[in-house]
Design a protein that fits this description.
42% helix, Rossmann fold, 5-stranded parallel beta sheet
């Protein structure tokens, strides 16, 4: 590796002293690297799924246009993850004046400290090299964030120790934004900043100057500014000041996965599914049910649309369901860990905490709504997977008085024997390519899917006490008759 220049003199004799590297702005730097990656066919945002034809082209165009931008979207739409990947478009390292708090360019220093160093030391001025990982600064906006936090403040201790006047720039303690000079500065939930702080931001964006404690300080900062916000907060009167909104070059609206398949891909990528070498097998239809829970929640009128339903919901549910199956496998001595539909019901704590309910939903309760979402998701998955496969024989058995209750922690082989008592149930699982005969753990999950789907369609009934029974059991015989009931619990 070529040794990097360590003094200003060495730097002047290096390629960094020639265009286009010399004093290149951060937005020009990002543009140049982005163009190179496009020409070479590199993946621009690895791990970002579902935005290939919507968000990522808009973001690419904004960066090529050298725009400051904002990502508008509900929670769990990968906004922060996208912002943190922007460092991919920065150079590996850049030269700065050693000891500079604001990453001064040695050729065009902006702070008094760096200007004095270059004037006093000349070509002997020490040079440091800043990696791109240290050129990204992120701040979560809250109402208590002050101008001092973002821009800076007068430091009386510095003034006393250095014998400076308070108006001297050397007494300034720089905030987050100046320290992000020649890098990327991002603010999450921008509308939560007070109006005074927002004014400070647009002054920096447009004029490059600020006032600290009444003293005007000229700081021509070189930064790419990127923000995130909830669409409702961003457009609400009084939440965002118009001059700042006007200075943001591009407004990009994010979204949840448009299809269940894309959602499953994201969940599979993000969920923690490898458990210390255990044989974890998650049937595809179980993944689909979990993903559809989020899709059902996003269209449910009892759930607040303004908050959204985060993509973290199916990720957490999948991890929880696998943990439930893992515990069962350990208790029962089974070698293969296969989550069932009943394990999704046991993952209710991963669902209820991620649902913001409207008034009607609050009356019904989060747990009741979560159970209904799971049942609806199972019904939609069964329809998608089984298609035209006849299930009338299964329904007829329950209509004729059959009843089935299976304990969630029962061994797979025992469950399959119990499901085998229901005419046509195992055959339907095989015909729908949900499971193969002899694969007991997956067969149990498949049979539970079919029964849950039939319950969702109200062709049979399901309750905690009775298990699966006829759709409208008679009061005089709630178990559906003697001799045909089966209880594995």
């Amino acid at each position: 590796m070529t040794r990097l220049p360590q003094t200003l003199g060495d730097l002047r004799r290096s390629p960094w002293a020639e265009p286009p590297l010399k004093s290149r702005s951060v937005r020009d730097e990002i543009r140049a690297n982005l163009l190179r990656m496009l020409e070479q066919g590199e993946e621009l945002f690895p791990g970002i799924v579902g935005y290939e034809d919507t968000i990522l082209p808009q973001l690419t165009h904004a960066l090529l246009a050298r725009h400051h931008f904002i990502l508008l979207g509900l929670r769990g739409q990968a906004k922060s993850r996208i912002l943190r990947q922007l460092t991919r478009f920065l150079d590996e390292v850049i030269p700065i004046v050693a000891g500079s708090e604001v990453n001064d360019d040695p050729f065009t220093p902006i702070s008094k400290y760096a200007r004095d160093m270059v004037e006093q030391c000349g070509d002997a001025t020490a040079i440091a090299w800043l990696p791109r990982s240290q050129r990204y600064v992120e701040k979560l906006a809250t109402p208590d964030v002050t101008v001092a936090d973002l821009i800076g403040d007068v430091d009386p201790i510095k003034a006393a120790r250095g014998g400076h006047l308070l108006s001297d720039e050397l007494t300034m303690h720089f905030g987050l934004l100046p320290r992000a000079n020649r890098g990327i500065f991002t603010i999450n939930e921008l509308p939560d900043l007070s109006g005074k702080v927002q004014v400070g931001l647009f002054n920096i964006m447009q004029e490059g100057d600020v006032q600290i404690k009444g003293y005007p300080v000229r700081l021509p900062l070189d930064v790419l500014l990127a923000y995130t916000a909830n669409p409702e907060d961003y457009t609400a009167r009084g939440k965002i000041i118009t001059p700042l909104k006007d200075r943001i070059g591009s407004e990009i609206i994010t979204h949840y996965p448009r299809t269940v398949e894309l959602g499953m891909q994201i969940t599979a990528q993000e969920a923690w599914t490898r458990r210390e070498g255990r044989d974890i097998r998650v049937p595809e239809f179980v993944r689909e049910v979990i993903e559809r829970v989020a899709f059902e929640a996003r269209v449910d009128k009892r759930i607040d649309k303004r908050s959204g339903v985060s993509q973290r919901l199916p990720i957490s549910v999948l991890e929880h369901a696998i943990s439930s199956a893992e515990r069962r496998a350990l208790v029962q001595g089974e070698k293969v860990v296969v989550p069932r539909i009943s394990d999704i019901y046991l993952a209710l704590p991963s669902i209820t905490g991620k649902l913001e309910l409207e008034y009607e939903g609050e009356l019904q309760g989060g747990e009741a709504i979560a159970k209904e979402l799971i049942r609806r998701a199972a019904g939609a998955t069964m329809d998608e997977r089984l298609g035209d496969i006849a299930l009338d024989g299964i329904v007829s058995w329950f209509d004729g008085g059959g009843a089935l209750k299976v304990k969630g922690d029962e061994k797979s082989d025992a469950c399959v024997r119990g499901f085998g008592m229901v005419p046509g149930l195992l055959d339907a699982a095989v015909a729908g390519e949900l499971a193969e005969r002899g694969d007991a753990p997956v067969m149990v999950a498949a049979c539970e899917l079919i029964l849950e789907g039939l319950a969702a369609e109200k062709r049979i009934s399901r309750s905690e006490e009775l298990g699966y029974v006829r759709a409208k059991p008679e009061r005089r015989d709630p178990m559906g008759g003697q001799g045909k009931g089966l209880n594995l619990g």
